[in-house]
Write a structure and sequence with these properties.
The protein contains seven helices and 13 strands. The chain has 274 residues and is α/β, with parallel strands linked by helices. The strands form three sheets. The chain has a six-stranded mixed sheet, sandwiched between helices. Strands 5-6-3-4-7 form a five-stranded mixed sheet.
Length: 274
């Protein structure tokens, strides 16, 4: 454990003095800035990863991380989560099943995650998990309509408290089949925001066949891979996908929607599926 003194619970943003330069005048003011701190994930007493994150909803973040990274197969493999906030960062201690812990040690993976990095610490290309199992079709899953996606795109910003305060943070939302936003998590890192959402989905035991994930970011490989482990049948993003994200989504059977706006989106489909 670090010897740093404890700190008050974070609100996700801090106030900083600024000088606003506009035309011929300079005005002294204060501004809300999104908080970014190192968050250490400690599994069964051994430090596994240090991620740069916004120190809110850290229990959900830690649970989502170990699920989305395949460290544990189910939420019940995590017996305890305890978060410690310190002056210079945070530690989240997880106690997982011995079976999951031994499998983790076999992977020989140690992360040192930057804000925008999803595969830091991988020792070889062979350790990249690029081939997810195909998500089984659900006979009760609704078809996510264009109007549902457009509704989520229009309403997301109204649910982004920290975006309103700071102007610079990612969001991951769970939406029901009609596009109503049910829950939103924010973080300086888009991967972290998704992990927080995944942790909440597991805690709340949400039937993920009945809605979709909406992200305020691009669709990169690792975000789609995380979504496949939920499993999420539909993933919608505000910005563009990468070629590998499209390939992983198609292999997993995830419906990938990008450039989502209030008046439409782009859907990526396999050749010949139009």
């Amino acid at each position: 454990m670090t010897s740093c003194p404890p700190r008050a619970e974070s609100t996700g943003s801090v106030v900083r003095n600024v000088l606003r330069h506009k035309r011929d005048e300079t005005i002294a003011a204060v501004d809300h800035v999104v908080e970014e701190l190192p968050v250490a994930l400690v599994i069964n007493g051994i430090s596994h990863a240090v991620m740069m994150a916004t120190p809110i909803d850290l229990d959900d973040f830690a649970l989502g991380f170990v699920l989305s990274e395949g460290i544990v197969e189910r939420a019940s493999d995590v017996f305890e989560i305890e978060t410690f906030l310190h002056a210079e960062g945070a530690e989240v201690h997880l106690r997982v099943s011995q079976e999951a812990f031994m499998a983790l040690k076999d992977k020989r993976r140690a992360l040192a995650g930057r804000t925008g990095c999803g595969v830091c610490g991988i020792e070889s290309i062979e350790l990249l998990d690029l081939h997810p199992a195909r998500i089984p079709l659900s006979p009760t899953a609704p078809t996510i309509s264009r109007t549902a996606v457009e509704r989520a795109a229009r309403e997301l910003r109204d649910h982004q408290r920290l975006m309103h305060a700071t102007g610079g943070i990612h969001a991951a939302a769970w939406c029901d089949g009609d596009g109503k936003i049910v829950q939103v998590f924010e973080d300086v890192g888009r991967h972290n925001a998704l992990d927080k959402l995944i942790g909440w989905l597991a805690r709340a035991r949400i039937d993920t066949a009945q809605g979709f994930i909406f992200l305020s970011s691009r669709a990169s490989y690792e975000l789609v891979r995380k979504a496949a482990r939920v499993p999420a049948h539909t993933l919608a993003t505000i910005s563009a996908p990468t070629s590998l994200a499209i390939a992983v989504a198609q292999e997993a059977g995830i419906r990938l929607l990008s450039f989502c706006r209030g008046d439409g989106f782009v859907e990526y489909v396999a050749a010949g599926a139009q």
